[in-house]
User: Fold NUDIX hydrolase from Stanieria cyanosphaera.
Amino acid sequence: MTHRNPAPTVDIIIELSDRLERPIILIERKNTPFGWAIPGGFIDYGESAETAAIREAKEEVSLDVELVEQFQVYSEPNRDPRQHTLAIVFIAKATGQPQAADDAKNIGIFHSGEIPTSLCFDHDRIMKDYWRYRHYGIRPHY
Amino acid sequence: MTHRNPAPTVDIIIELSDRLERPIILIERKNTPFGWAIPGGFIDYGESAETAAIREAKEEVSLDVELVEQFQVYSEPNRDPRQHTLAIVFIAKATGQPQAADDAKNIGIFHSGEIPTSLCFDHDRIMKDYWRYRHYGIRPHY
Assistant:
C-alpha cells in the first residue's frame, strides 16, 4: 500500500509512585532536536501502542512501567520539525531509580511547577494538559 | 525514513443528537472485509487526526460532524486482516439525515441494544467499550 500517513509514536508520562507527590521523568535528548522531552518513540509494525510504550520506557529510562491509562493523541502536522508524527500519550507508573539510555543523554525527575519550559515538539502543551488533568480531572477537549 | 509503522486511521462514533436517545451510525462496507463497521479511514500525511475524522465522516455518511472527544486508541496487530492499522476512535455528534457514500454501501442508525454483532475488525469490542462508557462513564482501562 503506497498511502502515505503520519508516523505513529508513543510518549509515556512516567509517575514515580514510590516518591512523595509522584514526580515525573523527562529526558534530555541525545539527538536533534536537542532539549528536554517526554520519553517515547516510534511504534513498530506488528506492535501495539501499549507494547511500544512499555518497550520505549525501558529503553530510554531503564524502568519497567505499568500503564495506567491512555491520555490523549496529539497529531498536528507541525508538531515535529522532521516529519509528520502523531503521538499517543500514555500515563504510566514505575518505582525505582531511572537511568538514561538509548536516545536519552540524561534524565530528570520533576515535580509539578518544576517542569522545564521550551520542551521539544509540542511537549509544553502535553505537559500543560497533563497537569490540568492530574490536578483537576479535566481532560483535553474541543 | 524507512522505519515501518502501523498505518494510523480514525473511526468516528457519530451520535445523532437531534433524535431521541441519540442513536449512532454504522456503515455497511462496500469493500472487503464486507459487513457492518464504524465509519472511518486512513489519516493523510499532513492532516491531524481531528481533521481526518471530520473528513471521513463527511465522505462516508455525508454529515458535518462536531467532535465531542477522543475516546480510545485500538492498535492490536491482528485487528485488521489486511495490514497492521491503529485506530484513533472519536465520539462525535451530528444532526440530519446521513447518506451512504464513498466506501459505504449502506448506512444504518442503531440504538443501544440494536447494534449488529460480528462487526468488521475489532469494532465489536469498540462498541462494547463505547456503550459501557456512555452508560456508566467507565473508560477502557488496563
